[in-house]
Amino acid sequence: MTSSTLRSATARAVAPADGMSTVNRSARQRMLSQRLALQILLAERGVPGQLQAAETSLQLFADSQVQLQDEVRRATAEDATQLEAVYGSQGVGQTVQAFVDRCRRALGQLRRGETGAVAQVYEGLDEVLQALNLATSAFDAIAARREQHLMRELKGIVTDIQQVAREAKIVSFNAQVIAARAGLAGREFGVVAGRLSDVSTDVDRLARKGLDLVARK
Q1: 119-125 — which CB contacts under 8 Å span 24+ positions?
Q2: Tell me, what's the pLDDT at 55?
Q3: Which of 9, 97, 105, 191 is deepest in the core (most CB within 10 A)?
């Protein structure tokens, strides 16, 4: 992934098409890389079915990495800065792609009956695991930051609702005073004002509950 790609990220939040979060997808990449290496080892030792299993795992790993990078391209400018450091200067993207290329070469050797496939895969396994750990940590930090931002927005919305409820209660009180002064003619108006007071009280109660939930989060 190039720096220009990350710099061109839009202001849209990352929203995976299949519902899997970037944190979960990146964490799954670590698991897939280890499973792939083990399957290639077993395939070289002649265990039936492991070559096909390794090919399936590699395809899943490569496709997942493409999806992950597509999601990165939709990151906000703030997130893109952090991801550029991880995928660019820290070389995560290049390391992961190199691992994919080595696995493809290894599978090609196994299909041709050649040896040495395992050596080239395990050669950079620690490096790719470290790179995937860096990516997962970055996505985890971004997810936490987004959650904090969302909580602040929710708190602001609930506070605004609470303010509206208080203002509605004042309006209701004034309306009840006017209805009382009007006597019989204002009786129905007084009933509506009383109901407005009850509704505003319920809204204020729910707003307080919402604030409490946000605080506990």
Answers
A1: 121/36, 121/37, 121/40, 121/41, 122/37, 122/41, 124/95, 124/98, 124/99, 125/33, 125/34, 125/37, 125/99
A2: 95
A3: 9
With residue 4 as reference, give the H or E element that holds it.
Answer: helix 3-7
What is the predicted pLDDT for the residue at 217?
Answer: 59
pLDDT recorded at residue 196:
74
Say what the pLDDT of residue 34 is: 92
For residue range 18-40, what is the model confidence (pLDDT) as tens digits?
Answer: 556 777 787 888 899 999 999 99
| DSSP-assigned states of every residue in 143-200 | HHHHHHHHHHHHHHHHHHHHHHHHHHHHHHHHHHHHHHHHGGGGHHHHHHHHHHHHHH
Structure tokens, 39 = 């399957």
Sign (positive or negative) of CA dihedral 166, 168, 173, 177? positive
- Give the pTM: 0.63
- 73's CB contacts (< 8 A; 6+ apart) are 5, 6, 8, 9, 10
User: CA–CA separation, 146 vs 6, rounded Å?
Assistant: 18
Residue ranges of the chain with per-residue pLDDT less than 70: 1-20, 72, 89, 185, 214-217
Other C-beta atoms within 10 Å of 84: how many? 21
DSSP letter (8 states) at residue 115: S
Cα angle value 186/188/191 (rounded, 5°): 110
